[in-house]
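Hi V.,

You were right to ask for the full record rather than a summary. Here it is.
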Amino acid sequence: MYHWLGGLASGSFYVPYRGVRRWAWETYWLAGGFFSWILAPWTLAFIMTRDLPAVLRAAPGESLFWSFFFGLLWGVGGLTFGLTMRYLGLSLGMAVVLGLCAAFGTLMPPIFRGEFFSQVLATTSGRIILLGIFVCLAGIAAAGLAGISKERVMSPEQQRAAIKEFRLKKGIGVAVLSGVMSACFAYGLAAGDPIKTLTLEHGTRLLWQGLPVLVVVLVGGFLTNFVWCLLLLKRNKTGRQFFTAKAGSSCELEETIVETAVDAPSREMAEHVISGPQQHTRSVALEAPPAPREQNEQAPMLRNYLLCALAGTTWYFQFFFYTMGESQMGRYRFSSWTLHMASIIIFSSLWGIGFKEWKGAGRRAGQLLALALFLLVGSTVIVGYGNYLALAPAAK
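Predicted structure:
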């Protein structure tokens, strides 16, 4: 339930961004990111855990460093996701990145800890969980095929735009980088295990043990995104959008769309990442596409800030609930990443259906999407059953 709540938050966080007006991508992404990566993590960690400053001071330097460092790398994964979309297209790129992200983020932590053979392959419950992971990957592949089927019914202009930038070798290389780097969030949480132990020793409840680790990992993610957004703010001369309603930038948006490799499965990207040649739309993960508006129209400053605060805080809640779910998974907590990825795709796809983004996609695309959702829901049931078998003897 906690992981599904996290997936709902991740699949929904971009909805408030759709209401932001007259701000460039780098402006609203950084404004919302301040809530995602700094304000919400520190506030909730102070409220829900005990002696947060003392815990962080007493934490081993190695654990702090690796949690922070993997947060940096995770930020790189999110930023390179847009390049993957450009070179491989939406559906193929998303399937490759999310498949790698799910596989690496789930399997590498137990392999690194030396638990993969003893606790996963050597036990019935572990093998069932492994089956659930492969079912999840099959669901991601089905979602990718559904997107490919949808792209085939695009207009000739859209198809030509997609083919124009298609570069298989370069795209696969970038996709591997993005998928592996995006999985680093799971590595950062695993590297923070000593911090979790310390916070429990200071009297924090088991359910909230992961919040201090999130503080450290997200500081790393904030730094990566902050540097990139600063570069865009300087290049596009959009920094003044934070302070004045008269933006007047060539990077303003009619409708703002944000996705990253971890938060990306919404089908709504299909109509924005790949567009006709007259729109000159580029990947939103790298820079905002221009959409001419009346120059004398002003940005609704208060509304934009409130929507960014809502979107950023909602984004953070995906990992707030993720750490809660992970605390309940016992020795198979590594399977949390699979549940997280599956639930993100499920809920963001449902949002896409609700926004009628699959309207006119064709029967085959609809069938593949239904299959993907079935497999993804099934993977969460299988993983949950595997964990149940592991806990059943202890319960008896």
